[in-house]
Amino acid sequence: MNPGFTGSPLDRVDHIRADADAYQALLGDWRAKVLGLDGLDPALSPEGGLHWHSLAEVSVETELVLLGLADGKPHFVPLVQAKGGMARSPAVWRALSLLPAEDAAIYGTARSLIDWHNCHHYCGRCGGSTKVFRAGWGRKCTACDTEHFPRTDPVVIMLAEFEDKVLVGRQASWPAGNYSALAGFLEPGESIEEAVRREIKEEAGVNCGAVRYITSQPWPFGGSQLMIACVAEALDDRITLDTNELEDAIWVSRDDVRAVFANAPDKRFGAPPPFAIANTLLRRWMEES
């Protein structure tokens, strides 16, 4: 099972982004598709996939970002303004449960780019206004010519493992009974392994040693993030919660995790959604034996 938001079929065609003539040719391609959006959420087709418009259906004033090519056809996303903030809506959760994996990956890229543009209308160096360039994969300051490019924030997400059990936790804002892997942003001057050990110690008070990498996932909400999934070897199983971070944390066995994914009546907790890398991480750990 591949992590959610991965497996996009689009060729990102980086060489076209800096070629103004090639980009204009794509904007004039009658086969071009423009991603349909409902605010920031994906508009769905009757079949449950992404809905695509033709260029003729899009206002000529709309700024477009080139997502890439598929079967030679250009695919764009409109740069919509985030009205009422960029927080994810309940509707996007429902949509992602319906979208095929490839469509979710396309939407994830589009959403990350839209959010980035909405946060970078002004230059971080001089405060001047910025304009879109490189086919939507950058912004340039109109005052000092500084070029700005989309960035990805690295986040570690991990299971601490002790005597064939792993640690999962929950935040108070989550649906009742839901637990997930612990997670946190990498800090400056910190390795992945150091961040994993620090976050587990800070949130649950558990000391860890060796850390092994499992997989990664782009995450388009709350800024563009790269979720780096790991398993850490816990040196003890004593839990001391930071209640500012977690409401609860528990050690669970492979049988506990199997019961969760089988939706057994006596399951101990609710699983993260299938498109979240915590789901992938728990499944892979469960299948190790």
Overall description:
- By secondary structure, this protein is α+β, with helices and mostly antiparallel strands.
- It has 3 domains: 14-119, no CATH class; 121-150, no CATH class; 153-286, Nucleoside Triphosphate Pyrophosphohydrolase, CATH 3.90.79.
- It is 24% helix and 28% strand.
- Strands 10, 11, 12, 13, 14 and 15 form a 6-stranded mixed beta sheet that branches. Strands 4-1-6-5 form a 4-stranded mixed beta sheet, with helices on both faces.
- The radius of gyration is 21 Å and the shape is globular.
- The mean pLDDT is 95.
SSE diagram, text form:
Elements: H1 14-17, H2 20-27, E1 33-35, E2 37-38, E3 41-42, E4 52-54, E5 64-70, E6 73-78, H3 90-98, H4 101-118, E7 130-133, E8 138-141, E9 147-148, E10 153-162, E11 165-170, E12 182-185, H5 192-204, E13 208-219, E14 225-234, E15 248-253, H6 254-261, H7 277-286
Parallel strand pairs: 1-6, 10-14
Antiparallel strand pairs: 1-4, 2-3, 5-6, 7-8, 8-9, 10-11, 10-12, 11-15, 13-14
Structural class: alpha+beta
Q: What is the alpha-carbon Rg in Å? A: 21 Å
Main β sheet profile: 6 strands, mixed
Please estimate the helix content. 10-25%
Model regions low in confidence, pLDDT < 50 over at least 5 residues:
none
Give the termini separation: 16 Å
Q: Which class of the largest domain in CATH terms?
A: Alpha Beta
Number of alpha- plus pi-helical segments = 7
| CATH topology description of the largest domain | Nucleoside Triphosphate Pyrophosphohydrolase
Q: What gross morphology would you assign?
A: globular
State the assembly state of the protein chains: single chain
Beta-strand portion reads 25-35%
Average pLDDT, all residues? 95
Listing every helix as H and every strand as E from the N terminus to the C terminus, the arrangement reads HHEEEEEEHHEEEEEEHEEEHH
How many E strands? 15
How many structural units, i.e. domains? Answer: 3
